[in-house]
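From the methods appendix. Each design record in this collection lists the tokenized structure first, followed by the designed amino acid sequence. Records were kept in a plain field format so they could be parsed without special tools. The example shown here is representative of the layout used throughout.

RECORD:
FOLD TOKENS (174 positions):
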């Protein structure tokens, strides 16, 4: 499917004026294209990843190894979406650069874009569908402002598979 800017007038859901490259913790949800049940299934309240789900897991972990200023918090892959906490540090050096070398971190959208690109490429290689869309165009994010929110969101992520039957993203929701 090709994007036509004349037909799409999306309103940004991002916080106006906020610098998404600054240090902080972000709760992110990314949904599969057309909510396709692409990444596995929930069996007895436990997410069982298929090969595509394993690619998503591998590429989410890739973010932390690719960008030294990225740390991953709790995360989970669901049948048709994924939730995760992504922490951006201030970018002042790290294990691969001199400590005095300031790095301008990619903004959250750039990191999510990188994740979507590499995961889509590998999923499409596996299913032999070059150019096929895997992810919805946008993503949901929430800036985590304190430890209480971090704890609440972490509990939500960790319990997500057991709550699948009531999940808004579940097409078979009761």
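DESIGN:
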């Amino acid at each position: 499917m090709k994007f036509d800017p004349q037909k799409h007038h999306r309103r940004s859901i991002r916080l106006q004026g906020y610098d998404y490259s600054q240090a902080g913790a972000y709760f992110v949800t990314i949904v599969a294209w057309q909510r396709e049940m692409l990444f596995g299934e929930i069996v007895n309240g436990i997410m069982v990843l298929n090969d595509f789900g394993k690619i998503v897991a591998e590429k989410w972990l890739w973010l932390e190894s690719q960008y030294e200023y990225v740390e991953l918090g709790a995360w989970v892959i669901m049948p048709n979406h994924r939730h995760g906490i992504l922490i951006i540090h201030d970018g002042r050096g790290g294990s691969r650069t001199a400590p005095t070398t300031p790095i301008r971190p990619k903004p959250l959208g750039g990191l999510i874009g990188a994740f979507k690109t590499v995961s889509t490429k590998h999923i499409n290689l596996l299913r032999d569908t070059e150019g096929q869309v895997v992810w919805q165009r946008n993503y949901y994010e929430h800036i985590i402002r304190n430890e209480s929110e971090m704890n609440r969101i972490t509990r939500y992520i960790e319990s997500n598979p057991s709550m699948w039957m009531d999940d808004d993203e579940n097409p078979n929701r009761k």
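APPENDIX NOTE: The chain has three helices and eight strands.
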